[in-house]
Amino acid sequence: MAYDNLLLHWWKRNQSINESPPLPLSRIAGCEFGILNSFLALLILRVIYEYYRDRRLPPGPRRLPLIGNIHQVPQVLPWRTFHQWSKKYIRAVVEESLRWRSIVPGGVPHAARKDDTYMSYHIPKGATTVPLHWSMSLDEQHFDNPLEFRPERWLAGPDDDRFTNFFGYGRRICPRRHIARNSLFILVARVLWGFEVRPPTGPDGQPKTVDLHLYPHQRRLKQSLSRAVRMLAGL
Questions:
Q1: Whole-prediction pTM value?
Q2: In the chain, where are the structural domains located?
């Protein structure tokens, strides 16, 4: 199953206007998976906005989200409940981003250390197995409407059987997975800290769907950094 992605639009655009690509396709194809999730985190902030819209922030200074204070709760009492809620929801957004568009759809190949049987199929020792992260991430048995981006599914409660190994497992697990998760968390948190992100409004007055086209856009990025700039200037 194919999905909308930056690399596809980039390639079609160069083909349609008969331009020579500035870099061979092979040079950028490998990096697309890693960058895409960070970029998606920006695009899907409109989903977060729907929840933040009805939770007006109380007045007063806000702390700049840092790796070191992800797990800290501010001492200012009016912020405590909101901070606890937002931390959980941003984590859910990160998990849903990793699930919704897998970093490595085909997974990393593994080798069977001994003869095994799976669903009546015999797997001989030494055989190469490829875990399809794409298939497991979109399993309808564990993810209702899997093609829909819905962070709330990670707040409903634990499901021990659903796929969560987005960075692999075993000896081939990504050694920097914790850095990646924290980086995505900080990316989302800092954009929300400094900006109010809204999708453009369509002719019918309803929000328009955000896509991945590499063209000029009309997304509304309302800057709200005046207080933040003063805070940073004092650091």
A1: 0.62
A2: 6-103+138-233
Q: How far apart are CA 186 and CA 40, in angstroms?
A: 14
Q: Is 31 one of the annotated binding-site residues? A: no
CA distances from 130 to 11, 107, 117, 176 (A): 27, 6, 15, 21
Number of residues in the chain: 235
The token pair that represents 30 in the structure block = 């490998």
Q: How many CB atoms lie within 10 A of CB 134?
A: 15
Residue 96 half-sphere exposure toward CB, CA atoms < 13 A: 27
Q: Is 13 exposed, middle or buried (0-12, 13-18, 19+ CB in 10 A)?
A: middle
Render 110-164 in DSSP notation, one character per residue.
EE-SS-EEETTEEE-TT-EE---HHHHHT-TTTSSSTTS--GGGGTS---TTS--
- DSSP per position, 201-234: B-TTSSBPPP----S----EEEE--HHHHHHHHT
* Residue 147 region by backbone torsions, left for phi larger than 0, else alpha for psi between -120 and 50, else beta: alpha
Q: What is the pLDDT of residues 141-189, one digit of tens each?
A: 888 888 888 888 888 776 667 888 888 887 778 888 888 888 888 777 7
Asked if residue 127 lies in contact with residue 73, where contact means CB atoms within 8 angstroms, the answer is: no
- Nearest residue to 104 (alpha-carbon basis) of 177, 47, 160: 177
Distance CA 93, CA 188 (A): 8
Count Cβ neighbours within 10 Å for each residue of 202-226 and write b for 16 or more, e otherwise. eeeeeeeebebeeeeeeeeeeeeee
